[in-house]
Amino acid sequence: MTRPFPSLAATSADPLTPQWLLPPDHQLTLAGALFLIECGGVHPGLTDKDTLIQFTQVEKSFGSKVIYRGLDLSIRRGEVFTVLGGSGVGKSVMLKMLIGLLKADAGHIYFSGDDVTQMNERQLAVVRQRIAMLFQSGALFDSLTVGRNVRYGLDEHFHSTMSESEKQDRVAWALGLVGLPGVEEMWPADLSGGMRKRVGLARAIAVQPEVVLYDEPTTGLDPINTARVNHMIMGLQERLNFTSVVVTHDMKSAFTISDRLAMVHSGRIIHSGTPEEFRNCSDRRVTDFIEGVAPVREDVETLLNG
């Protein structure tokens, strides 16, 4: 589903409402055309107006451990896109490369037409205003109240453009959206695991981002809280019209929330498509993952390294 493209800008007249802007137009140069021919990719903003994020021939290793070898992936603006794969395949690494927390060894990562791999820290700081991330544990600061945790991004990025009352209003708005109104004075230690995830989500949406990255949002949650988080992801997507990128190995959640999915295996995307296309996929690697079927012949070394 295609939705409007949100910008981060907020006005003093209404600090709770994002302003909607389209990304700037780009012209296809000869070099850009050659790039497309050589890499077989779509440069966002150049040939596909719906593409917001593009990984092209990305490589990443940690020492001798190869994570990605020729990663190609396109994510459209306004969709819920889920990245699947087993533990340790590099799903979280992909998110961190997108916002510049980790550097790709080779290849290109485009966000709204701009190459993240070529940015300096000042430019990356602007990207991080536009892309918010919900970490696996919620990543709350135990020394700060819930309210201070939620407004952390506002203090970081909008200290000179938002007043104190506007920040307080934004915090209350974000907590209300995740079903936790009036908990500003509570401490993280007083929260359940599910509540911590929801506070982390409130902090992510408080800056009114264009993209929200969800790193294993349902890990460690019981079935009831898993359903709550899934409902919140879908509800916020519908209400705020941002782009969501989810990494998970929870197949039930993936099929519930996603417009499209992609599966990472051996450093590459081996299949992408709609939930229905995934269910009908004939690739044994995909069907085994969906059904939770381990290889019949799997040696001890494989099990220990998996």
Account of the protein in words:
There is one protein chain. With about 300 residues, this protein is an alpha/beta fold. It has a single domain (about 35-305), classed as Rossmann fold (3-Layer(aba) Sandwich). The chain contains 12 helices and 10 strands. The strands form 2 sheets. Strands 6-7-8-3-9-10 form a 6-stranded mixed beta sheet, with helices on both faces. Helix 6 (about 165-175) crosses helix 7 (about 195-205). It starts with about 30 loop residues before the first helix and ends with a helix. Mean pLDDT is about 85; it is low at about 1-45.
Key descriptive features of the protein:
disordered N terminus, 10 strands, 306 residues, six-stranded mixed sheet, alpha/beta, 12 helices, 21% strand, Rossmann fold
Query: In which range does the helix fraction lie?
Result: 25-40%
**Architecture (CATH level 2) name:** 3-Layer(aba) Sandwich
**Mean of the pLDDT scores?**
83
Hey, roughly how much beta strand do the residues contain? 15-25%
- State the end-to-end distance: 35 Å
Which spans of ≥5 residues are poorly predicted at pLDDT below 50? 1-47
Large-scale geometry: globular
- What do we call the CATH topology? Rossmann fold
Number of contiguous helices: 12
Largest sheet: 6 strands, mixed
Provide the structure class: alpha/beta
Order of helices and strands: HEEEHEEHEHHHHEHEHEEHHH
> How would you write the strand order of the largest sheet?
6-7-8-3-9-10
Query: CATH H-level name... which superfamily?
Result: P-loop containing nucleotide triphosphate hydrolases
Number of domains: 1
The count of β-strands is 10
Radius of gyration: 20 Å
CATH class membership = Alpha Beta
